[in-house]
Amino acid sequence: MMRYSIRGPHKGPALLATAVALATVAACSGGSPSGSGTTAAAPSGTSSGTSASAAPTSAPPSPTPTPTRTYPLSTAPRTVPAVRDHEAARGPGWKPAAPAGVVVAANSAGLADEGKLLAGELGIPYRGTAAAGPGDVELALGGTGARESYTLTVRDGRVRITGPDEAGVFYGTRTLKQSVKGTGAMPEGVVTDAPAKPQRGLNVDIARKFFTAGWIEARLREMADLKLNQFGLHFSDDQGFRIASDSHPEIVSAQHLSKAEVRRILALAQSLHITVVPEIDSPGHLGAVLRAHPDLQLRNVQGVPRQGAIDISKPASAQIVDDLLREYSALFPGGWFHVGADEYQALTVRSPSASYPQLATAARQKYGPQAGVQDLAEGWLNDRAAVVRGAGKTAKAWNDGFFRGGVVTADQRIEVEYWTGKEIGARPPAEYLAEGRKVVNLNDEYLYYVLGEPNQFTYPTGRRIYEQWTPLVLRGTTPVPARYDPQILGARFAVWCDLAGAQTPAQVANGIRMPLTALAQKVWDARTPTLTWEQFRTLATQVRG
User: 249 partner at 20 to 30 Å CA-CA among 17, 63, 286, 501?
Assistant: First the structure.
């Protein structure tokens, strides 16, 4: 739409002349935003309701002003996840065209990696620390917002992205990248954005099925564009131990990641503001370790071994696991280490003390006459958590490693990774929350992608996550009370390779694409989505490619 402003008072023939001129502009220019049409002179000796003899002979008509473009109010950029707030403005927005480049503000040199990445993605030059010029994108550290928050301003043909930390500025660049990819431009105005949850991510089981470093790196890049920040790496289980070991090379599977490959993965993750969380699951799921150390395998009173379970009554069992925890705590620089604790087979029988008298004896010796096998397992969890805490890490553990009613209680500092309510003695998630524990959502009803779909699992869909799930839905389909929301730290989508041959790595990547996209939306923005599922899926295709 064109808007024409008439300057100064116009009366009589002058007013008529101006009106005629404007009509001619519209006719000649065809409504062109440039307004470059030539105006016609007003007919002389005519006026509306006035004879020619009555026309004044003093001042001639004022010149007609050049038409100017008026922009409609902008709308929020279309991204996945959606931005939390957009202040609309009038203006052309921003497009990556000459002479645009990416610059880093003074005192923000740490953003060089973010700037170089964005420049390459947008196809414009990176000019380092420099004053922003016409058309530039400027990245700057500053402000007092929450961690990972950012402000993105489009004004006067420039873009400025600021945040209190590098992660926030990086997420601002993801918003810009997606908007340009989807529509070719970033709309005028100001985006103010921050995540609803601090932990947002993907969990992959490379122990049962080996995935290459390149495959993992591709997932990290996808995660980064979705503003996900945590990658769980389950690399030890019954079927394999998949990272090279210096302390116990005898346990490593033939197919494994070298430490050089792991460091390459970690370097990429760090540049994308993703923390890799390693997991060595114990005292169950240790089959790969126990193949090299059969003397440590748990056996019942008849001498029958239990698959994957280590005998926690033996000091050597703790020693080998702690060796591994310390070795990989040094390799992985992030702030968490997952110590497992789920599905310990000694606790799945009717009478653990009768079936495993050696565990019952060890429990009484360590924790007193009232202690049982459950307490020995809970003490094992606390001891492993203490090892990784000594390396500067926060321990995570699966919810079925936290027990009620025993002599020993799980350390309050361990983060509960809630995945199921199907175990023996299952505790509803509200119990953990009522104890004041912090919980991460890995609800197996929505967020478990189990290869081959055994044990009544079905492949989760993005639509079901998008329409039905929220971080409050920790177990089944029923949410916990909203008052517990601050204790729920976030969520991860999990890939488990129970039947490893059921899908190829490429099929896994394709199968988790939309579920992971839906999860990203729900952990970044707690509000009910405004788009329908079909609209969301179409948008995701446009902005992610």
Answer: 501
The DSSP annotation for 493-531 comes to: EEEE-TTGGGS-HHHHHHHHHHHHHHHHHHHH--SPPSS
Q: What is the pTM of this model?
A: 0.87
Per-residue pLDDT of 467-511, as tens digits, reads 999 999 999 999 999 999 999 999 999 999 999 999 999 999 999
Nearest to 315 by CA among 380, 373, 250, 397: 380
CA dihedral 523, 527, 533, 536 (to 10 degrees): -70
Question: CB-based contacts of 523: which residues, under 8 Å, 6+ apart?
Answer: 195, 196, 197, 200, 228, 471, 490, 491
| 3-state per-residue secondary structure call for 196-223 | CCCEEEEEEECCCCCCCHHHHHHHHHHH
Query: What DSSP assignment string belongs to 97-163?
Result: -TT--EEE-TT-GGGHHHHHHHHHHHT--EEEE----TT-EEEEE-----TT-EEEEEETTEEEEEE
The single residue listed with the structure tokens 């089959």 is 287
Per the structure block, which two tokens stand in for 443?
A: 């609800």
* Lookup: tokens for 110: 């740490």
Q: Is the peptide bond before 99 cis (omega within 30 degrees of 0)?
A: yes
Return d(Cα 388, Cα 366) in angstroms, integer: 21
257 within 8 A of 242, measured Cβ to Cβ: yes
Residue 503 phi/psi, 5° resolution? -140, 150
CA distance 523 to 493: 11
Provide the b/e sequence for 176-199 (b: ≥16 CB within 10 Å).
bbbbbbbeebbbbbbbebbbbbeb
- Each residue of 236-275: pLDDT tens digit? 999 999 999 999 999 999 999 999 999 999 999 999 999 9
311 token code pair: 């005998």
